[in-house]
Amino acid sequence: MFENLSYLALQQYWWAIIALLGGILVFMLFVQGGQTLLYTLGKTDTEVKMLVNSLGRKWDLTFTSLVVFGGAAFASFPLFYATSFGGAYWVWMIILFAFILQAVSYEYRTKANNWLGTKTYDTFLFINGLIATVFLGTAVATFFTGSLFSVNAMHHSFWQSPYRGLELALNFGRYATYVNLSLGLAVFFLARILASLYFMNNIDDETLNERARKQVLKNAIPFLVFFLFFLINILVMKGFNYNPVTKVVNLEAFKYLHNLLAMPVVLILLLLGVVMVLWGIYRAVFVTEKCGKKAIWFAGAGTILTVFSLLLTAGYNHTAFYPSIFDLQSSLTIQNASSSKYTLIAMSYVSLLIPFVVAYIWYAWSQMNKTPITKKEMEEDSHAY
Amino acid sequence: MLMEHFNLALVDWSRAQFALTALYHWLFVPLTLGTSFILAIMETIYVKTGKDIWKRITKFWMTLFAINFAIGVATGIILEFEFGTNWSNYSWFVGDIFGAPLAIEGIMAFFMESTFFAVMFFGWNKVSKGFHLTSTWLVAIGSNLSALWILVANAWMQNPVGMHFNPETARNEMVNFWAILFSSTAVNKFLHTISSAYVMSAIFVLGVSAWYLLKKRNQALAKRSMIVASTFGLIMSVFMVITGDESAREVYKVQPMKFASMEGLYYGQSNAPLVAIGVFDRTPSPDNPKTKEWAAKIEIPNLLSYMATMNPHTFIPGIHDLVHGNDAHGIISYYDRIKMGKLAIAALKEFQLAKKAANDSAASTALKTFETNYKYFGYGYYNDPHKLIPDVPLVFYSFHTMVGLGMLFVLIFLLTLIYGVRGKLPKKRWMLYIALWAIPFAYLAQETGWMVAEFGRQPWVVQDYMPTLSAVSNINQTSVMITFFLFGVVFTVLLIAEIKIMLKQIKQLKDGGQK
Q: What is the ipTM of this complex?
């Protein structure tokens, strides 16, 4: 079936999968958001333990989403993988270090003789929560604002800043830095909102639920400020267009706005996504407690839709999804950065497994979530973190 | 570009970093691969018999499994991204082929592993017995599936098949997915690696249980665990020996230089003997060709020829034959391969220039030259064929350590199973001590196995096509040095924490029963 698709259609299909994985990953960053709220929401050891264990059953899925995002990017757009990871070396290394710290912390934090002490592991969780959200958000913003690299005829890429990607967040003399950081911070506050909504759904404890509800409102305000700043900026700024025939890249005013108008379905998905996030927040803060429990589903699905449609805007409609501001013609597009047609076809068959994967995750978790986390369970379960 | 044009210190630091992460990662992975099945077997016994002791046994090993699993995950994520961060030229040159198994690993295996890990670990009182047992089995299947895909990827680097070089994009592209998945190298590598991982896990369970018997604690748990581990270990160790033997023939076929290095065979011969034990004196070099290579060795006549080809009389080429060629046996010298490699590299450049100038006839002539010589493309980066020889003593000692220990483990499982079934284990204290002390050696065998595979194939990152030095990212050496030391410190700290936690969990177990 995939054999009949054109090369371009396959490239678009794979960009959609990358965009979807990106959306799922940002949604799953609620785990990271929660890790920054452990001591804000939890005032006693048992409360912290409940929060940690509630997140501790999901953290591995977020981690896996990141790994799969990397693997899928490698398989479908290897030049992006090579250019971005090998170029923005320090950005990715810092993100990776944050994830190393997370991977052991849940399991080791309360184990006897754990050498570093519970507080250290909890600090690791906080560091991971802060860095993963801010850095990943900032990195995604560069799909719109561009980076400093060049690619030669042999497709070897050369990063053109000695700061190896850190300049994208720290070069305060460049306006785009603020746009990048605003998305990083928006993702950080969004992750904390999603975490609070998740706790309201997953933990059966009135005190914690009430505190989580307050956190939703507290984080909603900075989230909206940063997200709107980012959104307005990308809609009015120049974007990276390429000519579908000559493949020459040029700057086009209001490029991303044009993309949304040219692809009304993407525009609708984006608006729907944003409205669903807001609706989730509204339900949690202002409507009944029962509504609060379900708010995570609206905000979560809204997050996936928003990120999905933003990434489509960055890559579809002959737009360079990983633009270079050092050398416009080195910019990566879904056409020049992709795998061969054969590989995309082979991988497309593999992608048919994704609905099956989603189904078993859904089933396993519906079994596990029948009973929410309670104080009693924390005292009885010998495996609890 | 010639070898001299590369920043070799950058290559070395990048290699060191990859080796560090890979060797650390592999301290934890085998235990995950094997213990997951041991847990599944134990829980199956619990569900079948309904005896509470088996539930406690399963839960105890599950605790150790999780402690080990966490740090395995921590070290694993680095490997996935390191191909991009430190080997970005590699990622383009072969990414079209190599990326796919990594992505499939994630989609097919990692989600399965992580979803059902949570059910297995926290679901004891939340889901039905049947669903819990299924989850435990799925964790085992998921983790072993992930091993399948990453080993397929590694095997492809050792024996690149199912691909075609596209001069327009200057990269290798996949043309046959099934050839990659079912290449004999991939099949052997997968089977040998997982069976050795099962052996290592069985030794771990055996050793920890032996310690309980020595201390006369938790004897009910220990005795039962030892029976499961010995049975599983014995079957798997025999399987490991068979697949290891098969792997040797595979290496001989596709990587003759690695094979010669594994055996320290400098000069080829018919009826080649196998060096059972040997100590190097000084290895011959271009400046010192007459140096004697062995200080001492014990040989088994004809065995090497037999091992490589199932025929005791076959001529096995040595390092010297490969470098200088051997007309009688149809071996093309490395000198000639270097010449052909240089032709291929030059032709590729001509092709690109001709394409740019829209000169089709020049392009097609260049392409023809390129295609004739592409087989030895990677050799063209070198002038001196001696740079194409791996570190022979390192490969030799690693190989012999691995094989020697592997044989020993078969014997250990056999004895513990016999004594275990007869109920004599608690009295055979010497046996218990051997089982306990086998644990560090099982880890050693695992690491040396990978050292054979990875040092033995140097200087190739993709056999014959891409030397390691041309695979690195264009990055400054200081950055890699800093991350190398950061990884070294972080992994070491976490490893110490892991060991301390693990030992404490073992020491504090009280409900393992005595009967």
A: 0.93
